[in-house]
């Protein structure tokens, strides 16, 4: 069994909220086959307690905007490892030192991950030589524009 579609959507929403507040090493682990109490873990790190709290606040706010509220919050006062329990998804925001020490990814390494790509970051390999994003048009437009990276044919041939 894999995580439900609702759990996947919630996890992706939480992961993006964390990434938007500059969380590092954001990942999602599908623990549905191993745990009966939740479907997915969202893991995120921050270099200091203030950043941990900022990430936690953003995750809670973003999910609240979608009608999703945590049933439990732990570790908020210390802001070293904060756990937000949304039932189907548990968000772990850890200080970088705790993340390295407890290594939850290693603990759950037998579980599949749910792919997460930060929408705010440019995709690798998607930049043109000028540093601009590639056009959204079709390859035929590259020929018309005289794009030197095209397959060698020029417009008018």
UniProtKB/TrEMBL annotation:
<feature type="region of interest" description="Disordered">
    <location>
        <begin position="120"/>
        <end position="157"/>
    </location>
</feature>
<feature type="compositionally biased region" description="Low complexity">
    <location>
        <begin position="120"/>
        <end position="130"/>
    </location>
</feature>
<comment type="subunit">
    <text>Interacts with ribosomal protein uL14 (rplN).</text>
</comment>
<dbReference type="InterPro" id="IPR043519">
    <property type="entry name" value="NT_sf"/>
</dbReference>
<dbReference type="Pfam" id="PF02410">
    <property type="entry name" value="RsfS"/>
</dbReference>
<keyword id="KW-0678">Repressor</keyword>
<keyword id="KW-0963">Cytoplasm</keyword>
<protein>
    <recommendedName>
        <fullName>Ribosomal silencing factor RsfS</fullName>
    </recommendedName>
</protein>
<comment type="function">
    <text>Functions as a ribosomal silencing factor. Interacts with ribosomal protein uL14 (rplN), blocking formation of intersubunit bridge B8. Prevents association of the 30S and 50S ribosomal subunits and the formation of functional ribosomes, thus repressing translation.</text>
</comment>
<dbReference type="InterPro" id="IPR004394">
    <property type="entry name" value="Iojap/RsfS/C7orf30"/>
</dbReference>
<comment type="similarity">
    <text>Belongs to the Iojap/RsfS family.</text>
</comment>
<keyword id="KW-0810">Translation regulation</keyword>
